[in-house]
Fold:
Amino acid sequence: MAGTLAACGSSDGGQGSGDSKTVTLVSHDSWAASKDVIAAFEKQSGYKVKVLKDGDAGQAVNKAILTKDNPQGDVFFGVDNTLLSRALDNGLFQPYEAKGSDRIAPEYRADQDEHRVTPIDTGDICVNYDKKYFADHKLDPPRSFDDLVKPEYKNLLVTENASTSSPGLGFLLGTAAKYGDGGWEGYWKKLKANGVKVVDGWEQAYNEEFSGSAGGKKAKGDRPLVVSYASSPPVEVVYADPKPAAAPTGVAQGTCFRQVEYAGLLSNAENTKGGKALLDFLISERFQEDMPLNMYVYPVREGAQVPPEFVKYGPQAKDPETMNPAKIADRRDQWVKSWTSLVLK
Structure:
């Protein structure tokens, strides 16, 4: 697929002038949208959408930065607040204020002076737990960061590498927000001593190592705690056959970190007109209301409706940890470096 898209992007049939009829979206692996919704955009705009999925969010952002002079597409979707400054500092995006931006809830807006990115969705990175495991072991599931280092939860948690994975980095930032500069390293020493397992990315952690997910059950995963999202439990209901009365997984509400994902028009994009049209569409009511049951995230557009099963099984965290983007920009790389030497060495 990548080869096809690269060939499409490198032809010189007038794409530089912005009149190509194909617009290419570069994203992480979790991109998903309903066919009829994409078809509606294609009919309305006259552009054909091609999607290039490029690994975990962290990997996709790094690759986009490395290829920014000759980008793989026109729009990049999936850079979140944990990595936003890296993308902006490296000149990944060109300014564009998408039509409908005024409908985005103010708490999700960023880069308001230059409009290099547009908020698309929000979610909470949280520890999920396998309800059956804890019921079978007559053990209460953990509720907080503090609980995770207790002896009864030894060797139960799997998380993602903070240097390669967006949820892994979000979980690290959650601990830094919770325990501060003076406390987060001590916390991770306790977590390491308590047997936390670290894998490269979310797909491996959730669908292979975690005993509570459908994929993890097939893979005989043996970790009943995983760093995932507050919106992961609805996945286990919607795709189950038969559908269970309750989600088989739960969320430890005291372990959440608020994430916002953005999209932007890539610098040196060949089809800027198509890219702008696609960004407008990503914050339209039609697309925003399609997102929850496709990417399991919440819309950022005010007034966008959320499906009932999403509200029932995957409500947003009530009091998630948050962090000022400027602080993330200032400390992230050093935190990741310290985390790597502390946890992986």
